[in-house]
Amino acid sequence: MITTADIPYRYALTLEELTVALTPRTRIPGEKGRERLERWRESGPGFTGDGFHRRLQTAGLEADDLAWLLEAHNRDHLIAAGEPPAWLHELTEAMAAPGAFDPLPLPEALKNKKGIGFVQPAAPLIHRALQHILARVRELLADNPRLPFDPEKLPLQLCEHLLPGLANITERTLVLEMHIARMEGSLDAETPRERFAQYMASLSRTETVHALFAMYPALARQLTERIGNWQRFCLETLECLAEDWEQIDGRFFQNPGKLTAFDFSAGDTHRQGRSVVLLRFSSGTRLVYKPRNMAVDVHFQQLLAWLDERGDFPALRTMDILSRPQHGWVEYWPVSAPCVGSWTATGTISTRSAPSTDWADPFTP
User: What is the number of H-type helices and E-type strands within the chain?
Assistant: First the structure.
């Protein structure tokens, strides 16, 4: 059984986390620390000019502090007395759970996607997250059976946009490890295709993933935190939908059917993985969720309505918005909606029926 002591998490700590553990005293780095500092300064991205010193200031460090930390025995001594971080507990608990390495729910659209199998080391974390999400969804359905959730299909719907991003995180590391295994003779199949399949099968074994995370603790942390953020945002979206459903159903549509898809790629991610989400229902209806206060958007729609009442021009179409203190719902507008009209001799458009508020695009985060 893997424990928190099996993964050298000190190599996955940020500079800021290391700084917190430092005590206020003068540190004199050794020669090895200074050499490593110079290599780190030369190879670090964005450290041209005074970028290196700005980065140290952001972390509350001096150059000698970092050189001292780059000497492994100093860092190990510094971290030894501390408690393992929360993400490491989450990882070890997930890997110890029954069925941790069972096959992942793979949406049809991803079954033939190149490299998607590289998400397998994250399977324990994904299974754990889905269990928490499904447990909460069943609670919400018990309170309101009218909610549009289908617990049987929800894992596939939610995973469709998670898995490709995780594969991008793990792919380069796993390709490197696969070639190392081939050169060491661990992969003894005859053809490259068979050796690839042999290595991919090994990613479903606890000992393989354990060794991988022990070698790459920063990768372990990145996967754990990425999936944790995804889990929390999925729960946030589903709980907000449940809370507002009685007003949504009847305002934006009538009886839209069950949820069939979640598109988390409708906007950039912010604040621990939050983004605009496009919800699709079995009737073909769509709805946009925004994880932020919508007061500015509401006031802009009011401005358009005010201009419509006073302006001598074709009506400006406004969007319906249900605003909440920390989130909001927006009616779906196809972003490719055409602008219908004709140009007059003076160079002005004579009619306008499509949205004229590009900067208020419902997919803007």
Answer: 12, 5
- Would you kindly state where each structural domain of the chain is located, as residue ranges? 4-84, 85-231, 249-365
Q: Which residues have a Cβ under 8 Å from the Cβ of 243 and sit 6 or more positions away?
A: none
How far, in Å, CA of 335 to CA of 355, rounded? 9
H-type alpha helices, 203-253: 206-215, 217-248
Taking Cα atoms as reference points, which of 124, 122, 125, 121 lies closest to residue 208? Answer: 121
Largest CA distance in the chain: 79
| 312 has pLDDT over 80 | no
DSSP 337-355: ------B-TTS-BS---S-
* Sign of the C-alpha dihedral computed for residues 189, 194, 200 and 206 taken in this order: negative
Distances (CA, A) of 227 to 48, 103, 265: 33, 17, 16
Q: Beta strand pairing status for 328-331 and 321-323?
A: antiparallel
Q: Per-residue pLDDT tens for 324-337?
A: 888 899 888 776 55
Strand partners, 259: 281
Tens of pLDDT, residue by residue over 182-193, are: 998 888 888 988
DSSP letters spanning 46-97: T-TTTHHHHHHHHHT--HHHHHHHTSHHHHHHHHHTSPPPHHHHHHHHHHHS
How does pLDDT run across 83-100, given as a tens digit for each residue? 788 899 999 999 999 988
Torsion of CA 360, 247, 281, 144, to 10 degrees: 140
Ranked by mean pLDDT, the top range of 47-51, 84-88, 135-139, 194-198 is: 135-139
Alpha-carbon span 118 to 221, nearest angstrom? 16
